[in-house]
Specification:
Blueprint (H helix, E strand, L loop, with lengths): L17 H6 L1 H5 L3 E9 L2 E6 L2 E6 L17 E5 L5 E5 L5 E5 L7 E6 L3 E7 L6 H14 L2 E7 L7 H11 L4 E4 L8 H7 L3 E5 L6 H9 L24 E4 L5 E4 L12 H7 L1 H7 L16 H7 L5 H50 L1
Parallel strand pairs: 8-9, 8-11, 9-10, 11-13
Antiparallel strand pairs: 1-2, 1-4, 2-3, 4-5, 6-7, 12-13
Helix pairs in contact: 3-7, 7-8
């Protein structure tokens, strides 16, 4: 009997749609139910289902692969019962990925199926342009829409000046100045959020405080920051998905001290779009924007139209991204070689067994 999409228990509140339901048909036929991953703790995850919250087991992929491991925001097919088990993940339409903290060739998925990335930076400390550019590259590469939120406006001497500076660093991205203490622009921010929103930023930026304000209750742990540098402790220790009062869901993430890029070439092009546009007018197609004649990028720097810092930052992030990509390629080659060796070893064992039978 065909499954009819009715969503009687409000799973659509967490982002479930009729389109997703259609793709789930074969899983329904196998006796599985849809679930959204709220948080992950080692080999267990908290999942939201039509029956409410459940704790489910899952089998870690072998060899380990973060892209195949459940993450907050994932949609999954769950086998219900006394001991619920996550069977498979549904394809992600977006994912925030950075290089793993271990500096291995694997990426680390911070959140999945995100629609809006709120890059949260505190106005209580000077704007770090390089950090903002990294966060923007991470956000654009995910496939979601970035939104820059400058917090703690009540502690800033000239918030509008920082607003203008952030705007020049983020072409095509809205920038909003806010203050939880005074309520400034909180209603505007709430109106801008659609679908699944993730809060991303360094420790001490006020992500959890902002999240609690948007949620309407104290659900996220908050902490103090050091006066000398404005940095805070990681009060958020794991990613968690919570419904917003006005619709949609919110994912809070631990503060990011290390923001290493992983396969973010497209994101970098979006962040530094003005350099990409200028490069199209260079005399040589392979111009390195250094000493070549007819370089439109260097001409813009000399004319004061492009800060030299922007070009240096772009080059640095490109080198970092290329290094991460080379490590990934090396790992994939090693995995393929190991697979070939395993197949060869199996065949040799098979031949030896056959020869002994003759």
């Amino acid at each position: 009997m065909p499954h009819t999409y009715t969503d009687p228990s409000g799973l659509s509140r967490y982002g479930w749609t009729g389109a997703l339901d259609q793709t789930f048909t074969e899983h329904y036929e196998a006796g599985l139910v849809p679930a959204r991953i709220s948080r992950v703790d080692r080999s267990l995850c908290t999942a939201i289902t039509t029956s409410g919250l459940v704790r489910a087991t899952f089998a870690a992929p072998h060899p380990p692969d973060p892209f195949l491991t459940p993450c907050t925001g994932d949609w999954a097919a769950l086998r219900p019962g006394a001991e619920p088990h996550l069977v498979t993940l549904l394809p992600r339409h977006s994912a925030i990925v950075r290089s793993s903290a271990s500096r291995s060739s694997h990426g680390q998925v911070l959140a999945a199926n995100v629609d809006t990335v709120v890059i949260t930076l505190s106005l209580a400390t000077p704007l770090d342009a390089a950090k903002l550019e990294r966060l923007l590259a991470l956000a654009w590469e995910s496939g979601a829409q970035p939104l820059i939120v400058l917090t703690k406006a009540d502690l800033a001497a000239d918030p509008e000046a920082v607003h203008a500076e952030a705007g020049t660093l983020a072409p095509g991205v809205d920038v909003l100045v806010t203050s939880v203490a005074t309520g400034h622009n909180i209603d505007v921010l709430a109106a801008l959020l659609r679908g699944t929103t993730v809060l991303l930023g360094p420790s001490g930026a006020g992500k959890s405080t902002l999240g609690n304000t948007l949620l309407g209750e104290e659900l996220l742990a908050t902490g103090t920051v050091r006066e000398q540098d404005g940095k805070g402790r990681h009060t958020t220790v794991r990613r968690e998905l919570l419904p917003l009062p006005g619709g949609g869901v919110l994912i809070d993430t631990p503060g990011l001290r290390g923001i290493s890029l992983h396969d973010a070439a497209d994101g970098l092009e979006r962040v530094f779009s003005e350099i990409e546009d200028l490069a199209a007018d260079c005399r040589f197609g392979d111009c390195s924007h250094d000493t070549e004649p007819g370089c439109a990028v260097q001409a813009a720097i000399q004319a004061g139209e492009l800060p030299e810092r922007r070009l240096r930052s772009y080059r640095k992030l490109q080198r970092e991204n290329a290094w991460a990509a080379s490590r990934t390629d090396s790992r994939l080659r090693e995995e393929r070689d190991n697979q070939k060796k395993a197949i060869t070893s199996h065949l040799r064992a098979t031949y030896r067994f056959r020869d002994r039978q003759l």
